Structure formats: C-alpha cells, structure tokens
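Whiteboard transcription, Tuesday session. T.W. wrote the structure tokens on the left side:
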C-alpha cells in the first residue's frame, strides 16, 4: 500500500482526512481516482524527494511509498 498525505487545502478530496492508503501503481491513476486536478498540485514529494510535473507522468508508486501533495502557493 502507498500512503497519500494531502495538505489541508486538498483534503476535501479525501473527506477531510490527512492521509489515506491506496494500492500501488501509476501516480496519474491515483490522482485521477482522488479527482485531484493537475493544476491543483504544486509540490509533490515521494519519500521526501521532490517529483516534478514531467516525472509525475511516468511515476509508478510502490508499496511503502509515502506521497505528500501540496497545493500551488500564491501570494505577493
């Protein structure tokens, strides 16, 4: 299983929970299942390693991976 942890701004996708467990597999499939839009994701970490937008397209999540997803931050 893979642990998906969402920051507070994205938790509405998982009924307000901080984290959920999902089956291993394609990152894109997991995101689609959770109904998270690509433009909602700012920073994505897999096992504390940043994963850029291009790498996410090909990323396979393995058992025991931990994924942290943060929204795009704005301000000025």
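and on the right, the sequence the group agreed on:
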């Amino acid at each position: 299983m893979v642990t998906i942890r969402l920051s507070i701004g994205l938790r509405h996708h998982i009924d307000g929970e901080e984290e959920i467990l999902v089956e291993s597999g394609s990152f894109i499939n997991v995101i689609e299942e959770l109904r998270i839009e690509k433009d909602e994701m700012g920073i994505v970490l897999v096992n504390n390693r940043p994963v850029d937008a291009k790498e996410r397209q090909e990323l396979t999540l393995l058992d025991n991976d931990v994924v942290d997803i943060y929204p795009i931050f704005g301000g000025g």
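Someone added at the bottom: The domain at 2-71 is CATH 3.10.20.30 (Ubiquitin-like (UB roll)).
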